Amino acid sequence: RLSFPLKSRRVVVSSLVGLLSTCPLLPAFRSFPSFLVKTTMAACRAPVRSPSFNAINAEPESATTRDPNILFTRNSQAIFYNFKPKPVQRMLDFDYLCARETPSIAAIVAAGSPENSFSKHFFGNEEIAIGVYNTISDAASARPNADIFINFASQRSAYDSSMQALHQPTIRVVAVIAEGVPESQTKRLIAEARKLGKWLIGPATVGGIQAGAFRIGDTAGTIDNIVHCKLHRPGCVGFVSKSGGMSNEMYNVLSRTTDGLFEGIAIGGDALPGSTLADHAKRFEHNPQVKIIVVLGEIGGRDEYSLVDALKSGKISKPVVAWCSGTCAKLFAGDEVQFGHAGAKSGGEEESAQAKNAALRDAGAIVPNAFEGLEAAITDVYRKLVESGKHTPAPDVPVRTLPEDLVAAQAAGRVRVPTNFVTTISDDRGDEPRFAGKPISDVMEKAGGIGDIVSLLWFKRTLPTWATKFLEMVLMLCADHGPCVSGAHNAIVAARAGKDLVSCVASGMLTIGPRFGGAVDGAARNFLRGKDENIPPFDFVEQAKKAGIRLPGIGHRIKSVDNPDKRVELLVNYARKNFPSTDYLDYALEVEKITTAKSPKLILNVDGTIAALFLDVMKASKMFSPAEVKQVTSIGYLNGLFLLSRTIGLVGHALDQYRLNQPLYRHQQTDVLFVNEEIGYVDEQ
User: Fold this and answer.
1) Cα–Cα distances in angstroms (integers) from residue 166 to residues 79, 189, 192, in the given order
2) Contact (Cβ atoms closer than 8 angstroms) between residue 220 and residue 231
3) Beta bridge partners of 516
């Protein structure tokens, strides 16, 4: 057993093979059990991925033993291109319904995916991880057992991605779902597929399905429809059509008239399909599981005549029941009638549905006189096969119960699921978002500024205009206080270290707290207690002094009585002019008289001013109960104002450093006091 990394394993095995081919032990090596040699070589090919990815791998089938007429089996796996969550899950649901042992999707390709990406899906009630790769070649190399490429790319990129897939040595079948692929590109794809001996289904196809084995994308519709049409287990009918929608209808017909479908292919409705009706009918001829071939053609093109030739030449001997839709075209005026598909356009008498039906009938196919007779014709052919002993009807197979998605069950009211989050401030359900129950259109029409938005989202009410203007003043006045304060300093240092904008702002915001900008809540709680409990300002200050507590909202490192803070003056002047009352501000200013008598720097700072005035907002507006006032001052509302405001400045400082292309910051050693505690002396440089 080889325990080397992937590349090393390949080197070791190739070296062993080279050595043994020249040594006397060669006969013994040739007689070595072949299954051990195969196992060793398979181990060298195994992709290096995590166990969760390896767990969904099927055993690769040998390319030399694979029947070229068999496109799908119960072990087939696909590479799914241009990730679409719903079709992927529907394929996996079909797999589980059919009791497959392994999922039919081995890899997903999504351009731009980082290395070791994966996508989570359900396989029954088990959640699995499917590897997501950046390129088609990466996926094909990692999953050599996946020989089907399901291309959900748009018409703009379908050609390039399909051509890449055709050139992967492990890919045998390419299904192109996109409509509108230019005919010139389709011609090149067809030519390349034929040159490489590979199958091309589409473009403009819903795909195909092998009952009980493999499903491409959304083929056959819902799970309920699949069960109703007995597609969870194989029948005896090989069906091919141009139309995906009519294929679904025919699967229903076949479930009523026979023991069901074995395989169904929709080749696509474009004028140039990658594979023809006759191509698939010939495959069915060589598949012993298929006993009846049913073909649904249509007006336009000459594809059906290749089937006529195959019948006449004897290449197809199994009973063929066929019908070409579009016989009603004769009822419309004009030489050309365009139906739904790009290729469903009559270009002459030979391309008419009547001419094709007649030719198929003459070649030996069973063709009814009208579409309404198709069901009876199939019933008759099937009955004769069974009566003659050429076919034994497939037994019914119990259908697995597919676990229901929680979201679907919840929407249908079949389960009750507790929520993980509770919110009261906004709601993005419905036609437009709502802030505190108000439609965003109404908010924008009536709001005078950001203060109104803060009022709704923070306090869940519409504050008076004088109050929201106060909020906006706070946001503007506290937006920045220079580069030297701790928050701005941190943001600048982070920016000069090359960090991204979010990291720089976060670095600055993390300094906000009791010592920097985060004293608003504490000041509000203190002023609320002092004023409401009628504590004289002198006693208020003395109580804090005796408890050894610094009063939040009082004091400034630079500003003083002789050098007042202009921001405080602006806020106080606005409140005097616009607030109905300023009881808490007045109390705070009385406290300031006591503290500045001790030191001129113990002034009412901007934090304390904001705290006192917001208490006045809550009291004067008469919109907050005492319990709400207490809650606002205890859970961070007021510090949030400083946080929101200062973010503006932090962003500005970081962008300023980027713009100036400033180098990494290193602090000067001369500004550091180095203390050697072991020796016990102070080294002052």
Assistant:
1) 12, 8, 8
2) yes
3) 513
CB 140 within 8 A of CB 70: no
- Where does residue 438 fall: left (phi above 0), alpha (psi -120 to 50 degrees), or beta otherwise? beta
pLDDT tier, 516 (very low <50, low <70, confident <90, very high otherwise): confident
Instruction: Provide the residue type at 111 as one letter.
Output: A
Would you place residue 677 in the very low, low, confident or very high pLDDT band (cuts 50, 70, 90)?
low
CA distances from 329 to 244, 344, 353, 539 (A): 21, 11, 8, 101
Active site residue: 121, 341, 481, 556, which one?
341
Q: Alpha-carbon torsion 188, 192, 195, 198, what sign?
A: negative
Q: Determine how many CB atoms are found less than 10 A away from the CB of residue 101.
A: 9
What would the mean pLDDT of 315-343 be, rounded to a whole number?
Answer: 77
Here the tokens at position 121 are 């899906």
Q: Does 72 score more than 90 pLDDT?
A: yes
Residue with tokens 């976060």: 506
Model confidence, pTM: 0.69
280 is catalytic: no
pLDDT in tens, 465-514: 999 999 999 999 999 989 999 999 999 999 999 999 999 999 999 998 87
Dihedral pair phi/psi, residue 298, rounded to 5°: -160, 170
Could you tell me which residues come within 8 angstroms of residue 250 by beta carbon, excluding any fewer than 6 positions away?
239, 241, 264, 294, 296
- Preceding peptide of 203 cis, ω within 30°: yes
